[in-house]
Write a structure and sequence with these properties.
Blueprint (H helix, E strand, L loop, with lengths): L1 H12 L7 E2 L39 E6 L4 E5 L5 E6 L5 E6 L10 E2 L25 H7 L10 H4 L11 E3 L2 E3 L6 E3 L13 E7 L4 E7 L15 E6 L13 E6 L1
Length: 256
């Protein structure tokens, strides 16, 4: 009886919440849209000519990431000695990206466009929506986004409520369907489609981190270029005006 009790105590002492872990990143390709060739029209002295012009400009606000996720679920000790593992052919879970490499995952919340920005302590309120953290105005200012920009944060993460993003878990915190601000990155149809490539905007109050979370596709889904990907996501990057500096993002995964 004493031996059984000892085992129970030992098991409880090592119990911990499941949290996203850092992910290795291998760049396969990085590219941008080519500039369109200039159109022309013949000018004739004395004439007046009405013309309609159209053009496409690459965003100066967002970087896109896409790809596939491989990994295993394992049972191991603190020295990473593996007792058993299970390979994942079609992993489910989430990919997270943040400019902060150290995040208190148990405090994770939905990002709130109208948070008051007072940064009152919200630790211990994981699984809720931030009330006092960074808000939309502050976030857009951080990346030199004007409130009138058509590719701003609120114009992009413009979905909330039932029927938007699926239920998901982060570090044992549950986020119900449509609880957070989200967007649908385009699939092979050339538009955002329900249940495909959903991305959620999250916040962590201790480190004041903005976190982009892409929900993994557990089956075959054709991405924006017609190829099968596990995830697609957008992250903020300031390329306005004379800003040519790069932004470093840290990636995490949580597999189920």
């Amino acid at each position: 009886m004493a031996f059984s009790l000892l085992l129970l105590v030992a098991a409880l002492s090592f119990a911990s919440a499941i949290e996203p872990t850092g992910s290795s990143v291998t760049e396969v390709r990085s590219e941008t849209a080519p500039a369109d060739a200039a159109g022309s029209n013949t000018a004739i002295a004395g004439n007046i000519t009405e013309v309609t012009l159209s053009g496409i400009q690459t965003t100066q606000t967002w970087q896109g990431y896409f790809g596939n996720v491989s990994g295993t679920i394992q049972l191991a000790d603190a020295n990473d000695n593996v007792m058993y593992n299970w390979s994942l052919a079609n992993p489910s879970g989430e990919v997270y990206a943040s400019t902060n490499s150290s995040i208190s995952w148990t405090n994770i919340q939905c990002f709130n466009f109208t948070a008051d920005g007072s940064y009152t302590d919200e630790s211990g309120n994981g699984g809720t929506t931030s009330l006092y953290g960074t808000n939309l105005s502050t976030l857009e200012s951080m990346f030199n986004i004007a409130s009138t920009d058509v590719d701003g944060v609120d114009e992009t993460f413009n979905l909330i409520g039932a029927g938007t993003h699926d239920l998901f878990y982060t570090a044992n915190q549950q986020f119900s369907e449509g609880e957070c601000r989200s967007t649908r990155v385009f699939d092979s149809t050339g538009q955002g489609v329900s249940n495909n490539f959903e991305e959620v905007l999250l916040y962590e109050p201790v480190s004041k981190s903005i976190i982009f979370a892409a929900l993994l596709e557990s089956g075959a889904v054709a991405g924006f270029d017609g190829n099968d990907y596990d995830f697609e996501m957008l992250v903020l990057e300031d390329g306005h005006g004379t800003d040519t500096a790069v932004t470093t993002y840290y990636f995490f995964v949580e597999l189920e």
